[in-house]
Specification:
alpha+beta, 2 domains, 5-stranded antiparallel sheet, 8 strands
Length: 198
């Protein structure tokens, strides 16, 4: 499992900070990233084909992107063309990443799959994040769209999902309650992941 980092990059005299990212140093790191991404991609593809999945609020890059185009399509067979196009798009992104790595650039990849390259002459600092990171209630953010009726919750950049797959709630208090419960699930998962990566 790849380690996660907080990365700071100097640009025009300012330090920009990117939290909880993958830092790809070389082709060996990229091979490991591709292995992990392939595993997530397979899961995401199954999520898209599953009629019970609410597309757009899951945590895999492909499933999140799929939510834009095919999340509201009820007929599973009609999702297949969208999935094929998403695979082509992902292939193009991965091709650009590979070219940058082969050209000697470092990659910073965020949780959603967005990335940028660091050139050899750019200054940067990285700080490893413990695999046993524990979220706190301070990491919970409850939002409501302007004019909207429902509340949504995030823990840092992670969408909160309740036991039935719901991602929006009628009251702030209930959204907070669900978020705290989900926070405990994430913390337990982080503890388990840190044990398997030792």
């Amino acid at each position: 499992m790849l380690k996660r980092y907080n990365v700071k990059v100097e640009q025009k005299g300012y330090w920009l900070k990117y939290s909880d990212c993958l830092f790809i140093r070389d082709i060996d790191d990229y091979k490991l990233y591709m292995t992990e991404l392939n595993n997530k991609f397979t899961v995401a593809e199954n999520e898209i084909k599953n009629n019970r999945t609410f597309i757009g609020h899951n945590h895999s890059m492909l499933t999140g992107v799929a939510g834009i185009g095919c999340g509201m399509i009820d007929e599973i067979s009609e999702r297949e063309p969208m999935l094929a196009n998403l695979k082509l798009l992902q292939g193009s992104v991965l091709g650009n990443q590979l070219k940058d790595v082969l050209d000697g650039l470092k990659l910073v990849i965020n949780k959603n799959g967005g990335y940028f390259s660091i050139k050899p002459d750019e200054k940067y600092e990285i700080e490893e994040i413990s695999g046993n990171y524990q979220y706190t209630e301070a990491d919970i953010k409850i939002d409501k769209w302007f004019g909207g009726k429902h509340y949504y919750a995030k823990i840092c950049e992670i969408d909160v999902v309740d036991e039935s797959g719901g991602t929006k709630w009628n009251t702030y208090e209930y959204a907070q309650k669900v978020a705290v419960k989900y926070m405990h699930i994430l913390n337990e998962r982080n503890v388990e992941n840190s044990k398997t990566s030792l």
